[in-house]
Write a structure and sequence with these properties.
Helix content: 40-55%
Oligomer: single chain
Structural class: alpha/beta
CATH class of the largest domain: Alpha Beta
Strand order of the largest sheet: 1-5-6-7-2-3-4
Shape: globular
Number of domains: 3
Largest sheet: 7 strands, mixed
């Protein structure tokens, strides 16, 4: 069986469209067809009984799987199944054949989730993580030059497996530097040994497939998803003056809820209302490492549970997997399933989506297409690297030439639904929590955007609590009142003097209460 058909079948089986036995049986019945003929037969089978709209959606997904299969076949590596093929199921009893049309259609629709996960997978290390208490318990990297490639790969897998046990969010292995991790936002060295360039290169490339390794040496940097046991990582490799550097971001092991992330109940209610719209633009913003991707995944999961729509996500890479529940979720990865955010977003407008999720809006064409899509009947959710609502609006406008800005300002004023600006801060319990501000596009906000007076947003947000808005300072004050953060953390981030006065008054009241109790 040709490799492209093997990978095509692998994607179908992995995502539950067909069983492996059904797929192989169909292949045999067609007399060894090519990929195009085989894909057409699969398509005919999957769309039987579906509406024209659903059939068109399946057709577009089948095309995406064909592209995936062709790309994987070029590596020359055959897919590996977790379980062997099973015999085709026996014919269903007559009672099931007489199932009502609506039930049958629902069942068929649930089986067409053709999202191919492109993560590189490795088995996790067999180790008792309860014995990992400090960096001294981590495997050493000092003897890498004495190990063969298989042993180096085993060492890397062991090191990555231990990260979650120590509460680390990132691992950095860089030539000419001591290995370090990021833990609770702080940089911490895990060894005093400076990695030689040769060791850093072996450690960072040993888990790459031949295809990815060739691409890295051609482009000098690469991003991809890595799966080690039950842990997923976003990996970024690059070259610098001293050699090679790799950063490994540990992805949460489940889709967190907004409550788990630290959003307060009153604000969650208003954020969920933003996700009820059928068109418009919702932005999640913040600096790098502020948890935007996790928040985005939580929001997609809310939609996936409460609505019955087609969601297309474009990510670089796919970090958190979203299984199709009530919605049909199609996840695409830059570099593997599409060339760029621009091309993916332009194509998405022809792929019958209801919701489009953009992992990063960072250039003029992507932002322009996102605003256009939000005006033409789609709910668009995207991220930007900005620190607050005013900067977010300025960033949206500043990428356009001056002649276009009045038009884009008017379009944004009409299509924007809300902005969530966030950052991670130390929590009172020793972990991390999210601090944020929420902007809701009311009539007052729309007028501010149209007139280009972003400097007035802060005061409008401060007085817009009834509409669901809050400033960062108000969020910090409320978190302090709920004992979620310490006084010093809140005070260090506040800028509004009136809110600082409220914080100090609350702190003074608590201190007085403590003195009274001490007596």
């Amino acid at each position: 069986m040709p490799l492209d058909i093997q990978w095509f079948i692998f994607a179908l089986v992995t995502n539950g469209a067909l069983t492996r036995a059904e797929a192989e049986q169909l292949y045999a019945s067609l007399g060894s067809p090519d990929l195009t003929a085989y894909a057409q037969s699969v398509l005919d089978r999957l769309v039987a009984g579906l509406s024209q709209e659903d059939a068109q959606s399946v057709l577009e997904q089948i095309q995406a799987v064909i592209d995936y299969a062709v790309g994987q076949a070029e590596t020359g590596i055959a897919p590996e199944y977790e379980t062997p093929a099973t015999p085709a199921p026996a014919a269903a009893p007559r009672e099931e054949e007489e199932e009502d049309d609506d039930s049958s259609r629902r069942r068929r629709k649930q089986r067409t989730g053709l999202v191919a996960d492109s993560a590189t997978r490795f088995e996790g290390a067999n180790i008792d993580l309860s014995q990992i208490h400090s960096y001294a318990d981590l495997p050493t990297l000092r003897d890498i030059s004495q190990l063969d490639d298989a042993q180096v790969a085993e060492r890397m897998i062991l090191l990555l497996t231990c990260l979650r046990a120590l509460g680390c969010s990132d691992l950095h292995l860089s030539a000419g530097a001591k290995p370090f991790v990021r833990r609770m936002l702080n940089i911490e060295r895990i060894d005093d040994y400076v990695l030689p360039a040769e060791d850093a290169e072996r450690l960072n490339t040993v888990l790459l497939s031949p295809e990815r390794k060739a691409r890295f040496y051609e482009d000098m940097d690469i991003n991809f998803a890595l799966e080690v046991g039950k842990d997923r990582f976003r990996v970024c490799l690059m070259m610098h003056k001293d050699g090679m550097e790799g950063s490994y971001r540990l992805v949460p092991d489940h889709i967190c809820t907004l409550e788990e992330l630290g959003f307060m109940d009153s604000d969650i209610t208003h954020i969920k209302r933003l996700l009820d719209y059928h068109n418009g633009l919702v932005l999640v913003t913040g600096p790098i490492g502020s948890g935007k991707t996790t928040t985005l995944a939580a929001m997609v999961n809310i939609i996936n549970n409460k609505r019955t729509d087609h969601i297309i996500t474009v990510e670089d890479p796919i970090e958190i997997l979203q299984l199709s529940k009530n919605c049909q979720v199609t996840q695409r990865e830059i570099g593997r399933h599409t060339i760029s955010y621009r091309t993916a977003l332009k194509a998405a407008l022809r792929e019958d989506p209801d919701i489009i999720v953009i992992g990063e809006m960072h250039d003029l064409e992507t932002i322009e297409n996102a605003i256009t899509a939000s005006e033409t009947g789609h709910l668009v959710i995207g991220t930007l690297h900005t620190s607050d609502a005013a900067n977010t609006l300025n960033r949206l406008l500043d990428v356009f030439p001056p002649s276009q800005q009045p038009q884009i300002r008017a379009m944004t004023a009409g299509s924007l639904r809300g902005i969530i600006c966030q950052r991670l801060i130390p929590a009172a319990d020793g972990g991390l929590t999210v601090a944020y501000e929420v902007l809701i596009n009311t009539m007052a906000v729309s007028n501010i955007i149209s007139e280009g007076k972003a400097f007035r947003l802060k005061s409008t947000m401060a007085t817009g609590s009834k509409q669901g808005m809050c400033t960062l300072d108000q969020c910090l004050l409320e978190k302090y009142k709920q004992n979620l953060i310490d006084h010093d953390v809140a005070l260090g981030l506040m800028r509004d003097q009136s809110v600082i006065s409220q914080l100090q008054a609350e702190w003074a009241t608590r201190e007085a209460r403590k003195l009274k109790q001490a007596r």
